Amino acid sequence: MKRRVYFLLNICLVLLWSSCSKDYLNTNPTDRVSEETAFQSIDNARKALNGIYRILYTQYTNQHRDGQGAIMINLDAMGEDYVRTNASYVYHYQSYRWTAHRNVADANVNAFTYAFYYIIVSNANMIITNIESIEGAEEDKKVLRGEALALRGWAHFQLVQLYGKRYDATAKPNNQPGVPIVVTASTKGQPRATVEEVYTQINSDLDAALENLSASRANKTHVNANVVKGFKARVALAMQDWDNAVKYAREARTGAGFLMTNAQYLQGFSRIDNPEWMWGIVQPSDQVPAYGSFFAYMSANFNSAFTRVNPKCINSQLYAKIPAGDIRKKLWWDGTTADAVNFPGVLNTDGTRVSGQTRTIYQHRKYLVPDYNNRAGDIPYMRIAEMYLIEAEALARSGKDSEAASALLPLAVNRNPSYTLSTNTGAALIEEIMIQRRVELWGEGFRFLDLKRTNADLDRRNTNHKLDVANIMYVPAGDNSWQWLIPQDEIDANEAMGPEDQNP
User: Fold this and answer.
1) Entry pTM
2) In the chain, is it the N or the C terminus that has fewer CB atoms within a 10 Å radius of its CB?
3) What is d(CA 212, CA 224) in angstroms, rounded to the nearest whole number?
4) Residues in domain SusD-like N-terminal (predicted)?
5) Is residue 262 exposed (0-12), middle (13-18) or buried (19+ Cβ within 10 Å)?
6) What contacts 186, CB < 8 A, 6 or more positions away?
7) Are 18 and 32 a contacting pair, CB within 8 Å?
């Protein structure tokens, strides 16, 4: 029997209904409600919404599929700033080598990513469809509706960036094939909409979300108006809509917190109570998978088989561009004996260094588990720093050099007290801002998307990437391989799509 990658799942509240697609998903949520009762009350609808957030960190079937965290690692592995030490272990390896996303039969990266975001879409659709019929206060309904709309818009945005060609503001309308737009709970297959149509729907969802949400929320694991404005800023940047990118980036960070101190910068990027985090997830230690998890792969101190032999490094050329006084330079080992004490690597249960582990220059300590005996840690999805970078980049790309330099200043001087207002202009200023962005957001899942949206080459040459490990050292901008292929299961099972709908 053919299995639809997402339409089969479109009828299931994945983390709430115990009967859903058990052959595809293996989840153990803390709160389950049946299909029959999911929308009989505001409380149950809230559980359904919480289930969507739990989707973000749930492991599906195997260690490759650790929710949004796994996708973040794969997307950075496809860039040039994340450097893999060796070929040991398969996790994220085919993404690093640029093969998984172009394999229509790949289940762990290509098909999983496609299904993952449509699972979020389908669950959001059920809330949006059913919320009006639930008895309860309108204010409660607005919050549930707004968050579901925001998550649906965000998921479509992730999908179109990967499976469609980049948005090009000089070529409107963007009629190149995008992804199916799914805005109902129907299981009927949908055709690929154009990239322009998908972005129109994304903005419509985010605008509707803003009509329903405020800055108020219970905790940072849920989106609020500030986070939605952050989504709007990201979307505008991808669309080269510079004015709206500036507008929403400024509004997103207003009242959302403040930049962290230099001391906080070295504390491990694993606590959602950091004042700079706008949105993230808390992965409880009792819900972390036995194997896998974001920190099992990305942390510098948790003793997993993967981290023992494969410390993650920064691109040597990028590292060289970080000024000595910048706190961010301390996130990566300079290779000296004097600095080695700051990079003990993975630790035994008694806190001593694990013997025999691989150690290499440029290895990181950005991500640290709070308890090195447990692979759990909070994961950042949006930070205030990103909003400063979006504003600065959008201003620079629209030719407003002095305003761009001023927008960059608060972040740059926070990270490096010796930094002074940039006097760069034009392409040099854009390059400075992009270097700041690459350093600041290293390991947070942005680099492949940034290369694609800016129509830049992937260039790993003359760096610490190893050809025998990386396989791919250069991909020119605009090459067909920048598009992820549509999973073959979807082509086969969706009656609105056929072989002719596959990407080249």
Assistant:
1) 0.94
2) N
3) 9
4) 49-237
5) middle
6) 10
7) yes
Mean pLDDT in each 10-residue stretch from start to end of the chain (504 residues)?
Answer: 41 38 31 61 94 93 92 98 93 97 97 97 95 93 98 98 98 96 91 98 98 96 98 99 98 97 98 98 88 93 93 98 98 98 94 94 97 94 98 98 98 98 98 98 98 98 97 98 97 96 98
pLDDT at 34: 55
Tell me which residue has tokens 């272990």: 89
Dist. CA 400–CA 276, nearest whole Å: 26
Helix (H, G, I), strand (E, B) or coil at 349: coil
Measure CA of the first residue to CA of the last residue in the chain; give whole Å: 27
Contact 462, 79 (CB under 8 A): no
Question: For residue 354, which amino acid is it?
Answer: V
Tell me the C-alpha distance between 252 and 473, whole Å: 36
Q: Are 9 and 119 in contact (CB under 8 A)?
A: yes
The closest alpha carbon to 112, from 136, 82, 91, belongs to: 91
- Using CA atoms, how far apart are residues 395 and 405, in angstroms rounded to an integer? 9
Q: What span, in angstroms and rounded, lies between the C-alpha atoms of 66 and 62?
A: 8
Rounded to an integer, what distance in angstroms lies between the CA atom of residue 474 and that of residue 464?
14
The SS3 call for residue 429 is helix
- DSSP-assigned letter for residue 64: T
- pLDDT, residue 185, reads 85
CA distance 44 to 425: 54
Chain-centre distance for alpha carbon 77: 12
Q: What is the pLDDT of residue 8?
A: 37
Question: What pLDDT is attached to residue 30?
Answer: 35
How far, in Å, are 327, 331, 361, 480 from residue 313 at the CA level?
A: 17, 10, 8, 28
Q: What is the 3 state secondary structure string of 53-115? A: HHHCCCCCCCCCCCHHHHHHHHHHHCCCCEECCCCCCCCCHHHHCCCHHHCCCCHHHHHHHHH
Token pair 């996708």 in the structure block, residue: 71
**Cβ atoms of residues 412 and 419 within 8 Å:** yes
Listed in order, strand segments (DSSP E) in 263-414 are 277-281, 313-314, 379-383
Distance, in Å, from the CA atom of 219 to the CA atom of 139, rounded to the nearest integer, reads 17
Q: Is 383 helix (H, G, I), strand (E, B) or coil?
A: strand
Domains in the chain and their CATH numbers?
1-213+469-490 (1.25.40.390), 214-282+378-456 (1.25.40.390), 292-317+330-376 (no CATH)
Distance between CA atoms of 36 and 271, rounded to whole angstroms? 37
Query: Residue 442 has which token pair?
Result: 């290293």
The pair of structure tokens assigned to 126 is 């059920």
3-state helix, strand, coil in the chain (%, to 5): 45, 5, 50
